[in-house]
Amino acid sequence: MSEVAPGVWVLRTPNSAYVLNVGGGEDVPLAAHWGAPVDDEAAIALAAVPLAPPRGWESRLDGREEYPSDTGLRFTEPALALRFPDDSRAVRWVLDTAESDGQHLLLRYREQTRPIALTLHYRVPAGHDAIERWAELATDVPVEVLRADSAAWCVPARESARLSSLHGRWGADSRLQRTDLPAGTVRLGSRRTTTSPMHNPWVALDDGSATETHGEVWTAALAWSGTWRIDVQRLPDGRVAAGVGAGHEAPLVRLAAGTGHTTPKSVGLFSGDGFGGASRAWHDYVRAEILPHGDEVRPVLYNSWEATGFLLDEANQIALAERAAALGCELFVMDDGWFGTRVADNAGLGDWLPNAERFPNGLGPLVARVRELGMGFGIWVEPEAVNPDSDLYRAHPDWVYASPGYPRHELRNQLVLDLGKPEVAAWLHGWLDQLLAEHDIAFVKWDMNRPVTDPGPYGDVLWSTRHAENLYAILDRLRRDHPGVRFESCASGGGRVDLGILARTDQVWPSDNTDASDRLHIQEGFSQLYPARAMTAWVTDAPNFLTGNRLPLRYRFHVAMAGVLGIGGDLPKWTLEEQQAAIALISQYKRIRKVVQHGRLFRLRSPRESDAPALAYLSAAGDEAAVFQFLDGRRFGEPAPPVRLPFLPAGTWEDADAGTRYPAAFLAAHGLDAGLFRTYDSAVTHLRKIS
Ligand code: GLA
C-alpha cells in the first residue's frame, strides 16, 4: 500500500486494488475504487472523480464513505453512531495522521470538539486478496456507542445488483441464496448471541452477470461469533454499500472516560474471476491467516454421536474405537453423554465428571485403549450451557443469564452460563484446563446448543460483544496452555461458523444433517468462503436419522471425502462388505486429502442447478487433482455429461487408481467420464500429472 498522491492511498493485492481518498475534504475517507488492479495514474484519476452533484433529498456522501457517521448530511445506515451524556450525537472527524508500514494503514482521526479518537485500520496480508478492516475508538469522555461497525464496504455502481448470502436453520445450514438486490436495505444478522445457523456473516455482491468462472464479485465477511448485523443497502443512485459489524440493537457498548472499544475485523475480498475465484481466494486466506494451524493435514476422525447417542459407556466406546481404528480412523471422538447423570438432553449438563456407573474408572481406561489403538482421543463438551437438572445449577442458580421475576425459558432443556461473571469464567476454565491436563486429549468438540435469552440485569449481552469476548478469552487461554489440543466449533451444527471462531478452532461441524444429498448443498454454501480444511464431514448410517434417506455407502463416503473425512456410523452393525469398502475408501481419502484440504476448489456443477453435481480440488502445486462426481436424484436414462476440467495445467494426467492417461486438453475439451449410471452413483477420481 502506498500514498500515490497527497491523500490518495492505494491498497494492492495480487488481483485487486482498493483506492481511498483521505484528502477529499470530507470527514472520513471516500472509497474511490475497489476492484481490478489499477496503476497509480488510474488510482489518482479514480480518486479525483467528483461526488455526484447535489440532488434534493439525497446525500452526496451516501455510498461513498468508508465509515459514515449518523450525523451531518448523510442518510445511509451509519457505521458509527455515538451518543453523549447530553444526548448530542454530532461528530465531525478530523484527520490527524495516516501511517502505514506497507501492510497496515492506520488513519487516525480526532473528533472536532470532544476528546475522542477514531482510528480506521486497513491491513492487507501479503499474498492474499483479502483486505482486513476494523475501527478503534478511544475516549476521554463518557459516550454510548450505539453502533460501531467494522467497516462500510462501498461497491461501485453497476446497472443492477445481486446479493448472495448463506441462510439456514437447524439441520439445513449454510444454504446459498442468490437474489436481485432491491432498492432499500437488506439486513442479515443474528440477535442470538452466537453467529447462528440462520445467516452466516458473509455476503457477495455482483451485477447479476457473474458466474462460477467469470465476472466481478465483491465479498465481505465478519470475524465475529456473537450477535451481528450486515446491512446491504442499495441506494437511490444504484450504489451498494454494506455495513458490517458486531451487535444488533443499540447501544453496543457504554464507554467510560479513559476507555475504548475495538471492533472485530471485517474482511473484504474482490475477485474478477467469478464466485469460484472469490472462494479460492477466501480459502487461501483462511488457511494462511485465520486458522491457527492452517497448514496441518487433519486426521480422519470417528464420532460417536449418531452411533451411541447419549447412551455411551466404556465398553461401547471401546468397541466403537476398535472398529474405527480397524477402518483407518486416526482420531476417536466421544460425543455427548459421558458425564454427570446425562442420558438424555434434559439433565447433567454442567456436571463435568465422568458418569461413575458407565465409566467406573474414569476416562483413563478408554483414553488408554484409544491411544493403544494408535488414535488420538477427542471429547465433546458444551461448556457455556447448563441443564436446570444438574448439580451445577442446583449449587449456582445465579450463574445463568436470567431476568429475575420473569419466566425462565429453556431451549433443549438448557440455560446459558453468564461467562461475564468472573467466578463462572474461572470455574469453566478450571474444569476444562484440568480435563486437558489429566488426560491425553488431542481434540475438543466445543458445542453450544442454545442462544442467550432473558438477559436480565445484564440486558446488554444480547446486543453487546460481551459473551463472545469472554468465550474467546477462555479459548485463547486453553489453546495457549494446551498447544497440542485441537478444537472443533459446533453449535447444533453450523451455528457458530465464522472467521472469529475459526481463528481459535481447527475445524467446524457444518450441520447436524449428515444426509449426503443434503450435505452437497450445505457444503456448497460452506465452501463460498470456508475451506474444506475446516469442514468436518461424517459418513453416517442409512437410513439417515434425520431424513430417512437410504443412500449408498460409497455415495455417503464420496460426499464426506470432499471435506475433513469423519465416520459417524454405528460400526458394530456394519457388514463385512461395508467395512471392506470403508477401509478402501478411507485409504483413498488419505491419498487425496492433502489435495482436498489444501487444494484449490473448482465447483463444476452446482447441486442447486444440476442433478449431476461435480467439484474438484487442484493441489497448490498444480500436479494433483481430486474430482468428485455424483448423480443426485437424477432420473434413470438421463446420462450426465463428462465433467470438463479446463483448469488443469497442460500435460499428461493419469488416473492414479485406474492408470488411464489423459492429455489435459482432452480433459478440458471432452471431460472426465466417470461412467455414472444409476441414481446416487458417485465417483472420486484421483488424477496425477505425470508429464
Ligand atoms: C448438538 C451437536 C451434535 C451432537 C449433539 C449432542 O446437536 O450439533 O453433533 O454433539 O449436540 O448433544
Describe this structure in words.
The protein is an alpha+beta fold. 21% of the residues lie in helices and 30% in strands. The chain has 13 helices and 37 strands. α10 (516-526) packs parallel to α11 (553-560) and α11 (553-560) runs parallel beside α12. The protein starts with a strand and ends with a strand. Bound molecules: alpha-D-galactopyranose (GLA). Alpha-D-galactopyranose (GLA) is lined by residues 305, 335-336, 380, 447, 449, 490, 492-493, 509, 512. Alpha-D-galactopyranose (GLA) binds at residues 305, 335-336, 380, 447, 449, 490, 492-493, 509, 512.
> Which value, in Å, is the CA radius of gyration?
26 Å
**Mean pLDDT value:** 96
In percent, how much strand structure appears in the residues?
A: 25-35%
* Number of distinct beta strands: 37
Topology (elements, then pairings):
Blueprint: E1 2-5, E2 8-13, E3 16-21, E4 30-35, H1 40-47, E5 80-83, E6 93-100, E7 104-111, E8 116-123, E9 130-139, E10 143-148, E11 151-155, E12 162-169, E13 172-180, E14 184-190, E15 199-206, E16 217-222, E17 228-234, E18 240-246, E19 253-255, E20 259-262, E21 266-271, H2 274-290, E22 301-303, H3 305-308, H4 314-327, E23 331-334, H5 364-372, E24 376-381, E25 385-386, H6 391-395, E26 415-416, H7 422-438, E27 443-446, H8 466-481, E28 486-489, H9 499-502, E29 507-508, H10 516-526, E30 536-539, H11 553-560, E31 564-567, H12 576-598, E32 600-605, E33 614-618, E34 624-630, E35 652-655, E36 661-663, H13 664-669, E37 682-689
Parallel strand pairs: 22-23, 22-31, 23-24, 24-27, 27-28, 28-29, 30-31
Antiparallel strand pairs: 1-2, 2-3, 3-4, 5-10, 6-7, 7-8, 8-9, 9-20, 9-21, 10-19, 11-18, 12-13, 12-15, 14-17, 15-16, 16-21, 17-18, 25-26, 32-33, 33-34, 34-37, 35-36, 35-37
Bound molecules: alpha-D-galactopyranose (GLA).
